[in-house]
Amino acid sequence: MSGSTRKLTLADLVAISSGQVIGAGVITLIGTAIGVTGTSAWLAYGAAILVGFFSILPFIFISSTTVLQGGEYSIVANMMDKRVAGFYATAFITQCLSLSLLGKSLGMYVTSVFPSLNGTAIGLIAVTVFFVLNLGGVNIMADVQKLFTAILVIALLIFGFYGMTQVNPVVYDITQPGFFKNGYGGFVAAIAIYAYSTYGQYMVMNFSKDAARPTKDIPLAIIISTLVILVVYVSVAIVDCGLLPIDQVANKPLTLAAKKLFGTLYPVFIIGGPVMALMTTMNSTYGSRANPILRAARDGWFPEIVGRTNSKNVPYVIMFAVYLVGILPLIFGLSIKEITSNLVLVGYLLRMLTAFSIFYMPKILSQQWKNSFLHIPDGVFYTIMIVTVLANIYMVYLSLRGLSFTVMIINIAFLIFCGVYAVLRYNSGKVHMDSVKKMV
């Protein structure tokens, strides 16, 4: 995708970043948070976004320092032992399962409006359409992303801003008995519920090689999209907390409040809101998954055929592999819970590994880091890094606790396989790590 006719602008990157982070979670999570903390669920969402932003600060720092040819993979490849990079690249393939999760969720929302349709078929069609679209190059993907993200943000802002004129003012009263339903513990629990929906914007770094001004625009895109979700998520949560009696929306999806607010226009909101949220994430997922794998393939971690590209410089073999991993769970009818169970642990582990790698940035990329427009004193940097790594370790622990014994064994066996493969591939002499030379 690096041979595109034009490079991605800041507007492109903001659309990709915002579309990546705004998923259907905003529709499903608020009611759950209300159930544990009461009316303060809207305030908890704001706090969760700040916590999420803090957790991705290291990724913002390194994005402002160097061009990450392979995104997240390049961080590990340049900061850690080469075999660790091979482990990361192999395990990263599992993150393509998120496509099936998106397809499954999309089918559920579409059939909630059109019950006669087949949800699985809808999911398969959507995953396939975006596969074909992404084969056309990063520019086509970015143009579609800008349009869809604009529709998505407008739909959610209409819900939020119009809805805020209809809410009961008591929603803002922090002294009311039901505001902090379960005290401090409930508020923190709500933040934890929201956590997974607040930091996906950092994955725009995987488009670093396609950006016109990567070390400027990638971190700016992450910051801007964080401000976007702060406004969108909090306003939407205020409406869900204040439009209907709190006991009616607790542990219920946002669609209940949407039906009340929009009436007969409710189906339009579903298409513009949750459906568009899933499609923007699906659209950007192909590139955000393919680019790290492409860089790893060119470093020799996979057979040469894996890195082949079409006339648009799109790695079509990798794209097809991403597509295949995405549709198989849909074809075999796996549930959202089953898909998530096999996705979250490895995902958090890889993110922890990436965060830990950034510890070495001030030494390995010392001059570039000093020249970064986001440079901070080393003491502040390492303090942030320690907190981030500890937070990621805790998330891995929580993921392990939430897995069944069988799923845990499958995950551990897969991780062992990735480690063995990385060592064997490295010892074969086929790994040459060109990406280390590509970081400037």
From TrEMBL:
Lineage of the species this protein comes from: Bacteria, Bacillati, Bacillota, Negativicutes, Acidaminococcales
GO molecular function annotation: transmembrane transporter activity
Domain of life: Bacteria
InterPro entries: AA/rel_permease1 (IPR002293), APC_superfamily (IPR050367)
Keyword list, A-Z: Cell membrane, Membrane, Transmembrane, Transmembrane helix
Pfam family, one: AA_permease_2
Transmembrane regions listed in the UniProt entry: 12-36, 42-63, 84-102, 114-135, 147-164, 184-208, 220-246, 266-286, 316-336, 342-361, 373-397, 403-424
Membrane topology qualifier: Multi-pass membrane protein
Intracellular or extracellular location(s): Cell membrane
Protein name: Basic amino acid/polyamine antiporter, APA family
Entry coiled-coil feature ranges: none
UniProt GO cellular component terms: plasma membrane
Main location: membrane
